[in-house]
Structure formats: structure tokens, C-alpha cells
Amino acid sequence: MDSKEYKILCDRKDAFRREWMEKTITYLKEKRREDLAIHIEEVLSDEPIEKPHDFRGDKGDDWFVINISKEVHEEITNCLFSLEASSVGSDGETTAKASDVATLVDLWNKKLLG
For a designed S-S bond to 48, which of 37, 62, 72, 82 qualifies (C-beta 3.0 to 4.6 A apart)? Predict the structure, then answer.
């Protein structure tokens, strides 16, 4: 595989970085939604998208194709959205956590909904 093919695969709507999935799992478990986290853990147990031969990076740079139902996707997004809202400070100011979760909500919506 060359770099151009790799970029095409990673740009797919259903391709997610390891980092995004690991953060999502952490936040889902925080909300006691292990039932949703397990779907992402299953993806992480698969092989990542093959990297180009000249790729320089580590497993933190892995991308995976995530195949979940629309219903599970909606539940994950709703759970993250709820966590984002509850992470805003009592003064209405955003927090680092709220910002981090908001980024994940945006990624889940952008990547899987297009």
C-alpha cells in the first residue's frame, strides 16, 4: 500500500483514529455505558488499516474501520452529548473536558453521518 491509498482509506466516513475511539470508550464507561463501549472495544481488537511501507509512526497513529449500527451510533453520540452538557462549568463556561467531549461529538457526527 502506498501513502495515497492509505490517505483514501483514512478519509473514509467510517474510519476512526485509535485515539478518538479510546477517548470515547473512557467517556462511555464514565457514564456507565459499558454496553456501548464494548462495540468500540471490538473494533480496536481488530487489525487497523494497513499502513504504507514507509510509514513512520506507532500504534497511536492507527486508523480503524468502524462498523456499527445507526442505533448504536446514535446512542454513543447522545451519551457523549449528555456528558458534554454536564461537563460545562456551573458558571456556564466551557471546561477542558466539555471541549474534549464536544470534539468527539463533532467527530462522531462528521465521520459516521457525513
Answer: 62
